[in-house]
Amino acid sequence: MSPAEDAPARLTTAAEVDAAEARRVRARRVDRIAKWALPAVVFVLMVALWDRLVVWNGIPHYILPGPGRVVQTLVKDGPILFDAMLVTLRITLMALAVAVIGGVGLAVLFNQSRFAELSFYPYAVILQVTPVVTIAPLIFIYVENRTVGLLLCAWIVAFFPILSNTTLGLNSTDHNLRDLFRIYGASRWQRLRYLQLPSALPYFLGGLRIAGGLALIGAIVAEYVAGTGGIGSGLAFRILEASYRLNIPRMFAALLLIAVMGVVIFASLSFLSHMLLRKWHESAVKRE
Amino acid sequence: MSNLVRRQIAPAGQRPLVLDMTHVAKTFSGGVQALADLNLAVHEGDFISLLGPSGCGKTTALRLIAGLMPVTSGRILWAAGKAELGVVFQEPTLMPWATVEENVWLPFRLRGQSLAEVRDEIAQALDLVGLTAFAGSYPRELSGGMKMRVSIARALVTNPAVILMDEPFAALDEITRHRLNIDLLSLREKIGCTVIFVTHSVFESVFLSDRIVVMAPRPGRVVEELRVDAPYPRGEDFRTSADYAAWTHVASRALHAAMGEAA
Which of helix, strand or coil describes residue A116? Predict the structure, then answer.
């Protein structure tokens, strides 16, 4: 075959590859925009629909307030709701901190002592599977301090995913690395610090993201049960209080704040996880 | 230049004894006899290959030498107390969260030495394996061959008397394997360590070692010991020489005899 005859065939192939490549690039770009645009469009449509339903059917605001009214309430009741949000946020973050300490601490204890694991792991599971709503009233009978009671409830819900994930991580170390540590005469403490804890980090962070959401749920549920009002009450109490007064717009406004809090907590923990793992872990590494 | 480049390899026959294994056997709790009656005398500067099919107990032998498990019967006697060991596994076995430099630091770190104290040794080890430029990289940024080089640097950074290698190049492509074989020999010339090398490749064992211990499976045992007295340094020209062909012929016949016996 002469080069002249050969040339068109090669050109066609090159063009095909380019077309496929271009399609891929286009698909990626569409994907990138759609990831944000589609949920935004759905949001706008839903809010508009909600607004029209309320207006066209003349629904009174003490049954279903329109979105405009919810935003107005949010601004008007801003100071009260914002203070309440800070209270709930404080409990949530404290519970999360205690869950991290307790969860990681127990995981390390279970990992280091087989007897401790055999003795106490079943009770950790029982604590986890018993709904917190049923334990909370008892806790508030015996625990005088309200904050401590709230913390305890939120902790019970949040610590388990951290415990179980960290335990899994501590046990998932590379066997050859373990052997290497033995050959070099590493102490138990060195093995824990230089091998097991770093291996467990990705697992722990996965548990932490789940625990963040659960701590918020735990704090809210505990507030519902604790119920005491006045200064220093959280968002859940504000919702209860508003429902007694048929102040539906404020209920929606408080609900909105709780949802935003949940999203912000999840996003911050995801960001933290990404920053800690981005250099070395497969989950955080971008592949081209 | 360094404290890594130290030992002189004596000619075979004049090397002091490092390790003597007599009638070593290992039976696992399931009743599987992994190793029956292994006799092996290791001398300073030896490059010994344990060659055999899978199941012949060569990895078990290495683990016994490393002290990772006790022998069922027999004796492992170190001439001058248990020598310091370096180990290279089939996988690079690096800590993914640590940089290349931190990975090579590990043996020192476990002895309580800070990175600053041993920076020179680490730099030398990385220089020996040609990875100086990658000290700050993470393992995932390296190719398979480069990871293995890091693993070798870690094994030799403490200047151990004996380096144990368990099929270190088996998972690499042939071109990389050849390259690493040559580099390993030149490393050994430089630092003069004793190497016990597990492999199932006849070619690799002939190219690298001065003694080949051919082993047979079920139960694992030594069937023949060969001396490859081709002089070091060996390079690509050795791989194409008539001597090399003759040695591989002898070794593979011994291996086939071992496997035929077992079958």
Answer: helix
- Quick check: bond before B233 cis, omega within 30? yes
Most B CBs within 10 Å, among A184, A189, A197, A286, to test the B interface: A184
- Residue position matching structure tokens 């640097």: B153
* Amino acid identity, position B148: M
Measured between alpha carbons, how far is A60 from A200 in angstroms, rounded to an integer? 54
User: Measured between alpha carbons, how far apart are the two ends of chain B, in Å?
Assistant: 53
Q: How far apart are CA B120 and CA B150, in angstroms?
A: 16
- The rounded distance, in Å, linking the Cα atoms of B147 and A287 is 19
- The answer to whether the Cβ–Cβ distance between B97 and A285 falls below 8 Å is no
Query: Do residues A111 and A196 touch, judged by C-beta distance below 8 A?
Result: yes
Please give the ipTM for the structure prediction. Answer: 0.89
Mapped onto helix, strand or coil, the DSSP state of residue B81 is strand
A184-203 pLDDT, tens digit per residue, is: 989 999 999 999 999 999 99
Please give the distance of CA A17 from its chain centroid, rounded to a whole number: 42
Q: Indicate yes or no: CB of A183 within 8 angstroms of CB of B106.
A: no
Q: What global pTM score does this model have?
A: 0.84
Q: Which residue has the tokens 């999203």?
A: A263
Q: Using an 8 Å Cβ cutoff, are A262 and A215 in contact?
A: no
